[in-house]
Design a protein that fits this description.
With about 210 residues, the chain is α/β, with parallel strands linked by helices. It has one domain: 3-Layer(aba) Sandwich (Rossmann fold). The chain contains 7 helices and 9 strands, in the order αααβαβαββαβββαββ. The protein is globular, with a radius of gyration of 16 Å. S-adenosylmethionine (SAM) binds next to helix 1 and strand 2.
């Protein structure tokens, strides 16, 4: 088994074990809902939207599919895909790695998923996302702000490896991948669970140029 396959297997197993506890630990989703609202204000009816690392489908896939858009969600974890199908029956959900996605979309969201990748894979993934969007397509990204490279953390009782950037570095990476940043929201976030620590969350609302 390669290093990549082992890492993905570990992360998939961790999120299988976390399941619904993810939504219980992070009940306040103002930044994510605001990013979804930004998309809804601009997208034509029945737009195609890809939700990378969709988790349980809450709140984002539900928000976007509930507004009549065609939402495709992707997640490494079989349990997250099962929960997303249950929570958002009108969406289409697949198990897989975001780095293997093909197709073309009107909008893409990637909320707190690129931080699961090795640092060097973050710019590559942003370039991949750029290539999956139609010209002028919209992209919403969120990350946790920190200076970390494949840092082991205990998250809701599971071991994860996370990579994070500081806001100026992340913004530069987003712009270098070919996006115009139309809004940057910085939020302080206190999870409900004592098994997750307070964090600074970064939300970028972007357009493919
Ligand atoms: C922190 S959760 C975020 C879930 C959801 N986007 C949200 O913000 O509510 C990260 C999700 O990304 C998934 N994930 C991790 N690495 C992934 C990868 N390489 N490809 C696809 N999904 C991945 C995990 O299984 C998990 O469901």
């Amino acid at each position: 088994m390669t290093k990549w396959a082992e890492r993905e297997r570990r992360h998939a197993a961790a999120f299988d074990a976390i399941g619904v506890r993810y939504d219980e630990a992070f009940p306040h989703k103002e930044g994510q809902l605001a990013a979804g609202g930004w998309l809804l204000d601009q997208l034509a009816p029945s737009s195609s939207i890809l939700d990378l690392g969709c988790g349980t489908g809450l709140p984002t896939a539900a928000q976007l599919a509930g507004a009549g858009h065609r939402v495709t969600g992707l997640d490494l974890s079989a349990e997250m895909v099962r929960l997303a199908r249950e929570n958002v029956p009108e969406g289409e959900f697949h198990q897989g790695d975001l780095r293997d996605v093909k197709g073309q979309y009107d909008a893409i969201v990637a909320f707190f998923v690129l931080l699961m990748l090795p640092l060097a894979q973050i710019p590559e993934s942003l370039a991949l996302i750029h290539g999956l969007l139609r010209p002028g397509g919209l992209f919403c990204l969120s990350m946790v702000e920190a200076d970390l490279e494949e840092f082991p953390i205990s998250f809701l009782g599971q071991e994860l490896l996370v990579s994070c950037l500081l806001r100026d570095e992340l913004r530069a990476a987003v712009e270098a991948a070919g996006f115009a940043v139309e809004a940057e929201n910085v939020l302080s976030y206190a999870p409900s669970s004592t098994q997750a620590v307070p964090e600074i969350q970064l939300f970028y609302h972007c357009r493919r140029v």
